[in-house]
């Protein structure tokens, strides 16, 4: 029997997410969304007022990058769910934070099914500076201009804009801004 690959799991997960959110115009689904300017990539991100990341670990994958991914995902996502298969389930339970959701992909009579093993909770430790990295430079400038915080910053590197945003906006306001900017992007890395 052939091992399932990331693409096999992604197809099933994407179908389930499209069925759940496809008719919601306030939701955007991104594949391979870069975090911290590409330091990590989440397999699928659902953006609809909150940022919910889905990481896939199929039986063809190993878990070597998972600790780094956990660190990066924990800094920006409101919720994270890992989708895996039985061969990784026990190790994943011991590695991922307790607030992460876990979905198990099973195969029964040739059909792939998703089963919730652990319901995810809200992330208790989002990092404002890391979260601001989702913004394009022009979006960061726009946010600063709207709040009259842009003076002397327009020509500065992105990092300085992100620092100013992280220092100046409450986390809930920043989360709302990032979500709105991601959802308003047209035909950018999305389905």
What does this structure look like?
- There is one protein chain.
- The chain contains seven helices and six strands, in the order H-E-E-E-H-E-H-E-E-H-H-H-H.
- The protein has a six-stranded mixed sheet, with helices on both faces.
- Helix 5 runs parallel beside helix 6.
What is the alpha-carbon Rg in Å? 18 Å
What summary fits the major beta sheet? Answer: 6 strands, mixed
- Shape label: elongated
Q: What top-tier CATH class of the largest domain fits best?
A: Alpha Beta
Features:
single chain; Trna Endonuclease, Chain: A, domain 1; 191 residues; alpha/beta; 24% strand
Q: What would a concise description of this structure say?
A:
The chain has helices at residues 6-21, 66-76, 86-95, 128-132, 137-146, 158-168, 171-184; strands at residues 28-35, 40-47, 51-57, 79-84, 101-108, 111-118. By secondary structure, it is an alpha/beta fold.
Layout: helices, strands, pairs:
Elements lengths: L5 H16 L6 E8 L4 E8 L3 E7 L8 H11 L2 E6 L1 H10 L5 E8 L2 E8 L9 H5 L4 H10 L11 H11 L2 H14 L7
Parallel strand pairs: 3-4, 4-5
Antiparallel strand pairs: 1-2, 2-3, 5-6
Helix pairs in contact: 5-6
């Amino acid at each position: 029997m052939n091992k399932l690959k990331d693409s096999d799991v992604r197809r099933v997960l994407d179908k389930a997410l499209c069925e759940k959110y496809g008719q919601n115009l306030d939701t955007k689904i991104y594949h391979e969304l870069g975090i911290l300017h590409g330091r990590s990539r989440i397999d699928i991100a659902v953006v609809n007022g909150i940022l919910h990341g889905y990481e896939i670990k199929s039986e063809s994958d190993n878990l070597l990058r998972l600790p780094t991914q956990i660190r990066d995902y924990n800094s920006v996502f409101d919720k994270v769910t890992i989708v895996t298969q039985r061969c990784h389930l026990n190790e994943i339970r011991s590695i991922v934070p307790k607030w992460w959701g876990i979905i198990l992909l099973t195969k029964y009579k040739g059909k792939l099914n998703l089963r919730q093993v652990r319901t995810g909770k809200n992330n208790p430790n989002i990092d404002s500076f890391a979260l601001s990295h989702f913004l394009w430079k022009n979006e960061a400038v726009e946010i600063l201009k709207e709040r009259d915080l842009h003076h002397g910053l327009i020509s500065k590197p992105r990092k300085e804009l992100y620092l100013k945003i992280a220092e100046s906006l409450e986390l809930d306001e920043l989360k709302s801004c990032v979500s709105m900017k991601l959802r308003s992007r047209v035909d950018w890395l999305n389905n």
